[in-house]
Amino acid sequence: MNGHLNRPWAPAPGRRTAALFAAAALLLGAGACGGRATTHHKPGTSHEQATGSTGRLLSAEDGSGHRLRQVDAQGAPEVAVAVRPDSEDGWNIHLTVRNFRFTPDSVGGAALLGRGHARFFLDGHPLARVYGTWFHLPESLLRAAGGGTLLTARLYADDHSAWAVDAAPVQATATLGGATSTPTPVPTPATTVDISLRDGKVSPAPGRTEVKKGRSVRLVVRSDRDDTLHVHGYDKEARLPAGRTVTLTFTADRTGLFEVETHESDLLLTQLVVR
Predict the structure, then answer these.
(1) pLDDT tens per residue, range 111-149
(2) What does pTM read for this prediction?
(3) Which end of the chain is more exposed for a tag (fewer CB within 10 A), N or C?
C-alpha cells in the first residue's frame, strides 16, 4: 500500500491518448487563428450582408442586376479599355486601371475601396468576368454571345456591387472592328454642398451655389432631428433621420434658381443657381 501511495499519478492509457489529441487540436487551432485575414462572407449569409462600409450602396442597379456602390470622385477607381485583333483568333483586350487592383482571392467578400474585379459586356449583354488586365476574346466566344461590336468594361467590388461615381457605373467602352478604341471619360465630379442642421440653425449660412447645367449635384446633409430634405423645381426629396448623414444626388438639367429646404422645420438650406 505504501508503495502505491508514493508512486506518481499517471493517466490511464485511454486518457493519455485523449489528452494528446486535445493538445494537437489546440496547436492547430492557434495556427489557424494566425492565418491570413479574409473578407469572405460567413456561410448562410448573402453577398450584400457581408458588405463593408465603403461608399454608399444605392438602390439603383447597373443594368445587369448588380447594385451601384457610390464613392467620391476623388480617389475613385478608374478604368480604360483597349482592343486589338489577335494574330491568330479573335481579339486581345487590355484594361488600364487606376486606384484599383484585382483581388480574385477575395471574391464574395466585403466591399473594400479600390479592390475587386471587372466584367465585360458586349452590346449590353454579359460576356465574361475577369481578374486581370489582359483578356483574350476568341471568335467562338464572340459568336456564342450573339455577336456585337460595343465592348464595355465595368469595375465591381468583391461583393459584386458595381463601383459608381455620381450614380453612374465606373466603366469604359471600346469598339470591336478596328485596332483603336476610345475609353469612356471619367465622370465629371459633382458639385457637392455639405450642410449641417443643429438646434434649428443651418451651417454654413444659406447662400447661393452656382451649378453648370447638366452637372451632377450632391447634397450632403446632417440633421440633429428627423426632417425631410426637398429640392424645389426638381421634386427631389430625402428623409433626414436624426443624427445621420444623408446624400441626395441628382442631375441639374434645368436652368433657374431653385431653393433647397426642409419640410418639418421649414429651413432654407441653400439656393441652386443653374446656368
Answers:
(1) 999 999 999 999 888 999 999 999 999 989 888 878 788
(2) 0.51
(3) N
